[in-house]
Amino acid sequence: MDGREHYGFVVASSLLPLLGVVAAVALLWQRAVGPSDLVAFAVMYLVAGIGVSAGYHRLLAHRSFRTGRGVRIALAAAGAMAGQGPPLVWVAHHRRHHTPRAAPARPRAACSPRARSPGSLGCSPS
Ligand SMILES: [Zn+2]
User: Fold this and answer.
1) What does each C-alpha distance from 8 to 12, 58, 79, 92 come to in angstroms?
2) Ligand 1 centre from 62 Cα, in Å?
């Protein structure tokens, strides 16, 4: 999977499930979907967002902080729940994204896959 394919995979895997959830909630409200389901969705959305933002991006790709093995595994698992591919592939493409020689046509402030992930806080310069 090259960078473009991975980008398409990340976009599709981020948007299609969300559209499916919206359709399911609208069609099945109070029959098969209730308020507790929305709470579970929100919690898992937050966990997956933290997994990508703190786990995949800050911990694994940039090594911004150190933590124990259990926390590393938990953050990587939470990131994997976001459906953005395995940690090694995500980290490799993200590091390439930050390499100026690898993507000369992209502007410096291009959004990372993390910026488009569930629960992310948007684009950042690092
Ligand atoms: Zn980054």
Assistant:
1) 6, 22, 17, 16
2) 6
Gap from CA of 27 to ligand 1 centroid (Å): 38
For residue 117, pLDDT beyond 70: no
Tell me: pLDDT of 81 over 90: yes
Distance from the alpha carbon of residue 123 to the mean position of ligand 1, in angstroms: 9
Question: What percentage of the chain carries pLDDT values higher than 90?
Answer: 48
- Report the separation in Å between the CA atom of 57 and the middle of ligand 1, taken as the mean of its atom positions: 6
Here the tokens at position 20 are: 């499916």
108 Ramachandran zone, left/alpha/beta (phi>0; psi -120 to 50): alpha
Domain membership of residue 37 as a residue range = 3-99
Question: Is 114 part of a structural domain of the chain?
Answer: no
Angle, in degrees to the nearest 10, between helices 69-80 and 35-50: 120
